[in-house]
Amino acid sequence: MAKKKQELFIDINTQRDFNYILDHNKDQLICIEVYCSFAGPSDEVEALSRFRDQSQPVYLFILLLFVE
Q: At the top level of its lineage, which domain of life is listed (predicted)?
């Protein structure tokens, strides 16, 4: 049986994409590289707004654990 291909790098440009990644990767460690795009439109992910206009990339590690 073939394994499902898992992407290692995914471009996230909207709040909707960001929420989708968080919702579908519960109990998994997520590493996010946040960087400012000087040539493109401003980042639309509100949760990452404090990192706008940074000259260096920022790395965030997110782990969502849900206890039932």
A: Eukaryota
pTM: 0.69
Give the Cα separation of 15 and 5 in Å (integer): 24
E-assigned strand segments in 7-57: 29-34
Three-class secondary structure of residue 58 per DSSP? strand
d(CA 27, CA 37): 30
27 dihedral zone (left: phi>0; alpha: psi -120 to 50; beta) = left
> What pLDDT digit, counting tens, does each position of 10-64 carry?
888 889 999 999 998 888 899 988 877 655 554 678 888 888 777 788 899 999 8
The residue whose two tokens read 């049986």 is 1
